[in-house]
Each structure stands twice: as C-alpha cells, then as structure tokens.
Amino acid sequence: MEFEPFFAKAAARTLVCMILTTFTEGACPKIVFIERRSSSTISCVTQDKIIAEAFWYRGSISHTIPILRLENGNPGGTEYGKGQYVVDSKGAMTIHNASVVHEADYFFVAFFEDDTFHKSNVTVVITVLPDPPCPQVTNCFSCEECHLNVSGNGTVTCSMLGVRPKMNINWITEGEPGTDITLHQRNVKNNSNGYTWDVSIGLSYGTYTCGQRFVLQCIAHDDHKLLKYSTPVYIETENCNDGGALGNKQSVLISTIVVMAILIVILVISAICYKARRKDQRSLETTVNPEEQPLTSSKSAYLDTAAQRTADYLKGAYEPQCSVHVLPWEDPIPITAVNIDYELTFKNAQETNINSSCHEILRNISLNNLHRVMITADRGNGKTYFMKQIIHQWSQEKVNSFILIYIDADDISQNMDIMSMILKMLPTSHNLTKEVIHQVLNSNEVLVLIDGLDELTVGDGEKSSTAESEKQRKSDTESTDNISRFNARQTIKEILENNLNEEDNNVHVWITSRGLQDTRYEFKLPYVKINLPEFSEQQMKSYIKKTCSYYINFKELTEGKQGSTENTPHQKDKAKANSEEVIRMVQKIVNENNVLRDFKNNFFLLSLLVHIIAAKLTITPEYLHNLIVENMASLIATIIEALLLRYSRKNTKLSKEVIDKIKITLEEVAFRMTVPDETIQVRFPKDRNNIIRIAEAVGILEEKEQDNVIDVYFSHTRIEEYFAAKYISKLDKVKYQSIKKTIEKSHGGVWKLILCLEGLE
C-alpha cells in the first residue's frame, strides 16, 4: 500500500520525538488568538536552521497523524488541500476562515539538515470581539469613561455581549465612608449560536452622604488573562444643603413619608376610577362584541410610532448596504451614483404576466402577491446589486409602508432566528422591547430579504441548542399575548421551508440564488421565480456614463478643495467636454474589443473593468500608475490583482472559488488573443499545429486525451510571465528587452513559446 512508507516514517519520527531530549522547546507562541472568520499564520522560530522535514499535529503527537507536513519542500498532510490549513516552505501553518472547530492544541515538530530537531506546542483560541470593544454599563455609551449623577441609591449593570472566549467580569470599587456597595450574582449565558457568551454582573449602591463622589470600574478578562477590557464609572451624588449630612438624613426621611402619603391617595383614587370604569364596560358588553372593537387611537398611534422607530433603526444598520465597493483600493461608492433599474418579466402567483421595474415592484409590494420570491442569476450577475437597490429605495422613504429585514446568508447559519438578528441590528441605546417588536411585525407588512441561499451554512458545528431555542420561543409567544401572525423566533430554516401560518399574509420572503440543483437548502414552493436579465446595451451605456461621471465629479470636488479649480463657465464647459471624452474612451475600450465579450455577460466583471478604466482616466490613483488601459493584458492583470485583494479581505472559501472561475475565464480570453482565429476551438484535434505542442511542452497548456480527441486546458503556472512578454513587447522596446532577459534566465521554455507566437522562431 502506497501510504505504508509514510506511516512507517511518521511513526519513526514520533518515536524519536518522544525519546530524544536534545531539542529546543518554546519556539512557538504559547497561545494564539484568532478572530473568527479571519486568517492567521503561526510561525515557530527555528534559529535560521534549514528545515528538512516539518510536521503539524492537532492534539497528541503519539495518537494522531500530521494534519500538515513538509518533506523535501513538498507539502501534504490529512488536512492539506482542503482550504482550511496551509503550510509554507518554512514550516509555518496558516489557518484560513477560522471557526470554533479550529480551537485546539497544536504540536509542531521540525527536523533540520544538521540532524537536530525541534518540538513545541501552541494553543489556538478562537475569539469573537464585542462591539463596542469594552464592557457596557447601564446608561453609558462610551468605552473611555462614564459619568452618572445620582441621588441616594441605585443599581448599575455591566455586560459583555456576544463575546468569545467566555469572559470573567467583576466590579472594582473605590468608595468613601458612608457608601454601601452590594455585588449581585454574575450571570453567564451561552448564546443561541453556541459559540459566544453574554456575561453580566449588577451592583447596588447606597449613600447617605450628599455631595459624594465614588468610582467604580468594570473589569473583564478571559481565563488566559491575556484579553482584558475595562470601563471606569464616576458616580456623583447631589450637592449638600446647609443641614449637612445629618440634615440630609432627616430630609430624606421626611421626603419618604410625604411620598408614601401621596402614593396612598393616588391608589385610593385609582381604585374608585377602576370600579366605575368596569361598571361602564359591563353595561356595554351586552351590545358590543369585544372582538369587533378597533384598536384605540392611542394604541394605534403608539404602534405607528414604534414601527417607524424600528424602521429608522434598521435604516441606520443598512447604511453600508446602500453603497457598492467595487475597487478594493477605494472607498465604497453610493449606489445612487451608479444605480441602474432592472426591467423584469415574470408570472405572479395567479399566473399573470408582470412587466415591472424594481421601483414599481416595491411600490406595489402587496398588490402583486409576491409573498415568496426567488431571484436567480449566475454568479457575479448582479443579485446582491439588485438587493442593494431594494434596500436603498426602502431607506429613502420617510414613511415606510412595510418593515424590511435584510439578511446576508454568508454571515449567518440556518438555525438563527429573526428576532435575534433584529436585536443585533438595533443600536445599544434603543428602548424597544421584544413584545413591541413582535407587535410591530404583526401589524405591518414585512419583507425578509435573504441574500445568497447558496452561501447559507449549518454553522461549522455552531448549531443553536434546540431546547433553549424552543424555550425562548415559548417565552416570547407568551409575552406577546399569543400573537401568532408572524413569530419572530422562527429560524431561517423554517422560513425557507415555508413553515408560516396561513394568516401570515403580511410576510414576504425574497431570496437570491444561483438556482443550482445541488444547493444544500431548499426554498420550498409556492414561490415566484424572477430571473435577472443580462445587461442590455442601453443599460451598459448608462452604467458606463454614470460611473465615469462619478469619478469626474469626485476629481473636481477633490481639486476644488485643494484650490486648484475655479468654478467659472469656461471651467464647466471644459469639465463637460472632459466627461464626454472619458465616457467615449471607456465605451470604445469595452465595446470595440472582441476579447472582452466575456466581460459583458458578467455584471461583476463588467463593473470592475469599467471602474478600473474610469479611475485611471480621471483620478489616476497611485495603484493604477502602471496600468495601460489600451493594453488588454495590463487590464487583465489589474483585474486579477483586484480580485485577489478582495479575496484576501473577505477571506472565504466561496470567494476563492469565484476568483478561480473568473481567472479561468480571463486566461481563456488571453489565449484567444494569442492563437489565430481559425484555431480557436474548445477541443483540439490530434494533428493541431506546433503552437499547441510548444504550449503543452512548457506547461502553459495541459491536455487530456479521450476517444482520439485531445482536450486542451489553460494552465495557471506561467500566466504572469506570458502576459508581460507578449504584450509589453509591442509597446516599449526597452521593457521588451528587460522582460526578455528576465525570462531567459528563469523560464527558457516560456520565452521559446513567446518567440514562436511572435513569429520570430
């Protein structure tokens, strides 16, 4: 069996590690904190020795197989190649897209060429930092310090919400004589996602001394005592009267007696009024059915106010969604600057053909009976852009006719519920109770947007506790007088499965999906399916015009602030002429070059291309200094660079899949540019010309033979050198010679291919 030599070798290495004592320890950090969904590289110091072999173990060395290994420069291991663990040429381990499943003790073993070896271990702790990053104190909104003016006594609570690892939290007091401090029991709750905690502790204080100042400090730290947070609280009591402390005690006693007497009088009057009111109600019950009575005007007005307040809070949370971040080097752009309305054709629930725009659909959301909608398009064809348009249009309305709940499926799991997600979106200063939110959702139209059904995950082992979720669900239902139109404790999974009551006519669920057959989760019927159309020529022209106008206006605004532009009629005419020239150039590059035909069919690639060209021709930023917009290879290289930068920031496996797919498309475009038109075929016969043979020989193409036909695929290995030598050579002879020397020294085969393609050999 081919694996036996490896296991035998690994066993021998393990035995050496356990027996020998001449090794160095402590080269790895003892503990490494990695924020969830981020990446981190763990390097172990090897005193500049040359590593012959290196191994990473998860758990005990003697009972596990290496998850990563490096032997003679070749990486491997049980977890290598799965996208989560990577080992580099120096033996360092990188953990990608960290989740709680990566939290463990890891052991590192390295064997050097001088026959010595090294062994050490590191503990990886996955963190989720709170937002804001400090303990939150009642009625305080700053992490720096908090000032409270009080009288007599009161209670304050300190909390750390949604944090990992579990924090220890406590109060440190610096009081004065006359101050009574009582600490409450610490409360620790594991959240429904299963991997974060809410920790809180209360404190009661009492003072009989006026004009006093005392200091509290809420301290939070983890079990490792490496993560530490604190918030100081300064409490001041009211100033003293002339009677001093003793007079203050007497005044407090007198005030208490007066207040109690007033309360007794109020209670007596209230009881009399209540009896009279009940008598009147009983006389009306014989003629009026209570179920037919409408809401009182005061309650209706209250719910309207609460609904608008909820909408306003959500608008604040959705502000980032009202912009598009196309170029990773630049700030996001308001979606209004590049907004293009979609013209849609579909059938509604009554099988009636509907021709409508995005704006019209939202304006008549309940009239079209669009309760459940699946919006489909291929990857990169504008589904999220369409969602952003919906969010922006809703956010611009001063008075909203419905409540919009936006959910990015890439950031959640199927077991999360609507209520918990709404509460996370509300600011810490909100004063809406769960009961009020339930009533708001039940008395208004509700549109739930779920962006990315294909990205929805179970949660990497972070499933919520079913029993705890059911208990909370019952608690919320009881607290809302059994209101059942829309239970906000329903999970994403239940919403997708259409487990809503028949009375839920106010609930609309819209999702985006690539429409794949093998998706993990099913959006169950009945629903209306809307296929997003490809950009028309007119829409593409409009998009190019708006994008160019944005960058030109941005340039004028920047230069105006620097005092280099005068706002004269002549300057305005010149700016307009420049704008039209830039738009014309961008349209020419995009429309007249056949090799960019693939970009037109993908909104994401098209927008990236247009923004890169427009930015280069207007603001000319430093990162585009070397870009030549008339050169397709230069454009393609810049697009790949932007894609990689977006991937490194977002850092998800799905993003890498997107980039790999787009890179293949880009490379196919580049290949068309190098091979004569008559030889462009998906499959090449056996007797294809020498260009294909040379390409295969140097690794730019690879082939697979089946049924006497050779399928040829483009390889990634030499693409950068290929681009540089092929296209720069046509523009600059000095660069041509420089590239020629560089490639001759490194990859002679590539240079031979370039000479062949250029007709020089």
From TrEMBL:
Domain NACHT, first and last residues per copy: 371-456
Alphabetized InterPro entries for the sequence: Ig-like_dom (IPR007110), Ig-like_dom_sf (IPR036179), NACHT_NTPase (IPR007111), P-loop_NTPase (IPR027417)
Keyword terms of this UniProt record:
Membrane, Transmembrane, Transmembrane helix
The entry's protein name is Ig-like domain-containing protein
Family matches, as PANTHER family: NACHT DOMAIN-CONTAINING PROTEIN, NUCLEOTIDE-BINDING OLIGOMERIZATION DOMAIN-CONTAINING PROTEIN 2-LIKE
Q: Where is the composition biased (Basic and acidic residues)?
A: 460-477
Q: What region holds the Ig-like domain?
A: 135-210
Q: Source organism's superkingdom?
A: Eukaryota
Query: A Pfam family this protein belongs to?
Result: NACHT
